[in-house]
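FW: tagging you since you asked about this chain on Friday. Here's the raw sequence from the shared folder, copied in full. Didn't touch anything.
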Amino acid sequence: MVVPLPDELRGRPVVDGATGQPKPVAEGPLISDWLPFGWVQQTEPGSGGALWQREYEPVPVGRPSPSDARVPRIAKDGPLLLGPANHVTVAAVPPALLETWDRRPGTRAVASVLVRGMRAAVDWSEADRLGTLRWREGDRAYVVVGHGSDGADLRDVQALVVSLARSLRRPCEPPPPIETWAPHDPSGTARPDQSRCR
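HL: got it, structure written out here
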């Protein structure tokens, strides 16, 4: 349930009216300004110590994306072509869990890239078909995991995960200009404007 507040909290605690106990106020999850054609946010599961978590995946075959009226590409006598991954998970984790959250045995570091102006480590787990990005922004740590489709090249999964990660922003950060093609920072070098963030 969403309840509008009459004024900003301004550092005041949120107190559970039934118990009188203070409750933490978690800053909202990162918002994706870009998703691959035919993809939507599906769930917000939260698990394994994540502070918050979102999952994105292609719309099931036969259902067009509500945000895109274009017809999905269909190969001749082939499956719907929606990308190299079955789904992508975006999570905020405590910085202490950054290196271990959702890391599978046999995972190896393959590269580093810039995301939101920060250096992000790229890991692959070939046995589990995972391409993962991990980075830290001050007291926040983020993990983006692409769950590769059968037969997909992990380089393609990595490219999808990097593009999605570069389109993420905090709710307090201004959205990219409408004229900008997403992902709005294809190089990953720009640091977001966090002047309205606490």
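FW: The chain has a mean pLDDT of 77.
HL: agreed, and Residues 154-166 form the longest helix (13 residues).
FW: great, closing this out.
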